[in-house]
Amino acid sequence: MTSRFEDHLSALADAVEARLAVVLADAAGPGESRRPDRLTAAMRHAVLGGGKRLRPFLVAATAELHGGGDGDPLAVAAAVECLHCYSLVHDDLPSMDDDDLRRGRPTVHRAFDEATAILAGDGLQTLAFDLLADPATHPDAAVRIALVADLAKASGPGGMVGGQMLDLSAEGRFGDGRPAALGDGEIRRLQAMKTGALIRAACTMGARVAGAGPAEVARMARYGDIVGLAFQLADDLLDVTGDAATVGKATAKDAAAGKGTLVSLNGIAAVRAELDALVAEAGTVLAPYGARAETLIAAARFVADRER
Amino acid sequence: MTSRFEDHLSALADAVEARLAVVLADAAGPGESRRPDRLTAAMRHAVLGGGKRLRPFLVAATAELHGGGDGDPLAVAAAVECLHCYSLVHDDLPSMDDDDLRRGRPTVHRAFDEATAILAGDGLQTLAFDLLADPATHPDAAVRIALVADLAKASGPGGMVGGQMLDLSAEGRFGDGRPAALGDGEIRRLQAMKTGALIRAACTMGARVAGAGPAEVARMARYGDIVGLAFQLADDLLDVTGDAATVGKATAKDAAAGKGTLVSLNGIAAVRAELDALVAEAGTVLAPYGARAETLIAAARFVADRER
To answer: Which ipTM did the prediction report?
Structure first.
């Protein structure tokens, strides 16, 4: 039996899937040539047909909390998901994590080939910014450019891409080949960059497209940081306690890579306690919104408690 | 002896180099964490210390033609060059063109490793959009978002990335492994996407950052299409007539890859005649600007006649 929150998440995932299918159609948009079939097929493989769509959900829910406006939250949600999926395609590459399986299906470089996977990822990143620049996303250019800035900061060298670099370094991929023994602070910094930054951006971008002001955007950034950390802690727990069939991707990878996580460093019990504290903190941050924040509080709880 | 145009090009290249060195510093910008040293080093290797900086020159020259305004053309030039350099890093990868040499130096994946090269390219793409979103680039959000849209359309699946996909397909990389015998129109479409689109965007973006209106932007798009085609024709000629030491990268690659070009299809003489016609056409398109367009006409001639 699914919870009311999971029904909500699933309904949004369907709406995002439909929008992504349109965004990833093979027709040429204005100002561009027709996209090559193979590239379109690879991008569609990377994006369509799977995933909880957590980041799009956060965009939609933070937009709803701030009440509508003239923007199109689903376009922003699609852009964030394209960016996220690009990062998955590249992280899965043979020279990176060398994964064969993603969301229970072959990774893009396995279903196609390595060059196509690199280009599909590249194109998905571009498409994300293209979507945000579209006047249909929000009539106000100032809002659109703020969305671009949020996404670029979150996903660039000082964000997601930098976090992946730190992650590979920590595995001992460069230098003497031995995994680094990262401390608590170093692991948190790595994870805040690699996964936290984009989750935070999903929350601030949802607020922005709904016309939220700076104070509300800052509050959504704090909420996003909490959810991002909870997401990573739960992911690290799953890597230890989950099985591949349920999770939909390989597990016990961190231990195999000799990678330190907050679970291996602090223990399962401490991490579970931190997750409880994070859910409570989310409630505090969202308190000014009263009952309207129910969905976002449920989202934080879902992320902390998720089993796959 | 260099021409007056080449002195101009060289002076702009120095200014762009200085700006890129600042953009690619290791300090954290606002809203981001500190960039990992290895990633910064790889991005700097990819971007600094070489290249004619043709695209940045086109940004600066088209901006100058439209007369100043409150924008910072050098920031736009740096963004376009970051985007261009990302494409070179990824195109050079073992699974793509597998090049060891670029601008007379080891390619990023040779100087570092494949994973680092992929991430450096990814980060350079993000950085390009980040730069365009910065209020220091232009105070008007509408101008900044138009710059983002131009760059995204030019470099995405319906532009540069799509062109690289078509190029790999034409080499017979997928399917039966035999190179495709592309016709004149197919080669032009491929090249317009792979190299032409970004050159056109450099021209429209320079006009936009200087406050040009839609008619002027459209005229710069036409000029950019001419320069882009001339650039590719000259490049194809060099691949046949140049030597690696002068050109700074491997030559005779097209023939080795069994790749059809307009040179192999139409012959050297016909391509040289087309280049002359393109230079004349550039003069016609720029005629409304009178003597002020001298630099851009010289740029078209330089691109058509270049020997490396």
So the answer is: 0.95
